[in-house]
Write a structure and sequence with these properties.
globular, alpha/beta, single chain, Rossmann fold, 240 residues
Length: 240
């Protein structure tokens, strides 16, 4: 795996490597390019999705695909640097990847989603599984909740939804060089967000953060990744 400062994890395997591996499941990280406050980079979700994907492909000897780095971040459009594609484009991209994998005789795909706003991925997965089990979406909300419990995080999914304890912990564990020191002073809570789809993130946070990054530690990040790897084996069992 290749990794550099501020860069995503990406496979450096050759065609010969993958032919020898003969994996029956491919793993596709899906991130985003959106604001994560002052202390985390625009590529945060891509880094997190790629980190989880790298871990499970190593643990289960699967076929790692390069990440999708721009997705559906329209709720962050009011913040500088955010770039999005439409839900229809993301749907089409995933569908094309699935067809290409099928032609390559890789019949199953695990989509590792790093951005909660990619709602369309649930529709893609449901549609793909109508005829046979071929696609899994991971991690989902319950997986995050279980991972938080296993890592002894103090926050929950709802109150720590963006740039908070969980995301900052994973990056402190795997890419500490991209985390700004001001994460210790970046906490912001907004528990009632019922109009998020209408007013976007700017309606609830000036900093771009909703969560408690001050609670983050590298050890929590490592424990989150351990839990995700353990939980993924159940998804793999369903696919196979």
């Amino acid at each position: 795996m290749s990794r550099g400062k501020g860069q995503v994890f990406i496979s450096t395997a050759t065609s010969s490597d993958e032919a020898a591996r003969g994996a029956d499941v491919a793993v596709l990280p899906v991130g985003s390019f959106e604001q994560h406050g002052r202390h985390l980079p625009l590529c945060t979700d891509t880094l997190i999705a790629s980190t989880i994907a790298q871990r499970i492909t190593a643990d289960y000897d699967l076929f790692l695909l390069p990440p999708i780095t721009i997705s559906c971040s329209h709720e962050h459009a009011a913040f500088a640097g955010t770039v999005s594609i439409s839900a229809a484009t993301l749907h089409a991209l995933l569908s094309d990847v699935l067809r290409s994998l099928e032609r390559a005789s890789v019949a199953r795909l695990a989509v590792i989603n790093g951005h909660g706003g990619n709602y369309v991925l649930s529709n893609v997965v449901q549609e793909a599984n109508v005829g046979r089990r071929s696609v899994a979406l991971f991690p989902q909300a319950r997986d995050w909740a279980e991972a938080r419990a296993a890592a002894c995080l103090e926050t929950d999914n709802h109150n720590d939804m963006h740039g908070g304890e969980a995301e900052t912990s994973i990056l402190l564990a795997e890419c500490p060089e991209v985390v700004g020191e001001d994460y210790v002073d970046a906490d912001h809570l907004a528990s009632d967000r019922r109009h998020l789809l209408t007013v976007g993130m700017r309606g609830y946070t000036e900093s771009g953060i909703i969560g408690r990054p001050s609670l983050a530690t590298a050890e929590k990040g490592r424990l989150l990744l351990d839990s995700f790897s353990e939980q993924f084996k159940h998804y793999l069992g369903q696919l196979r």
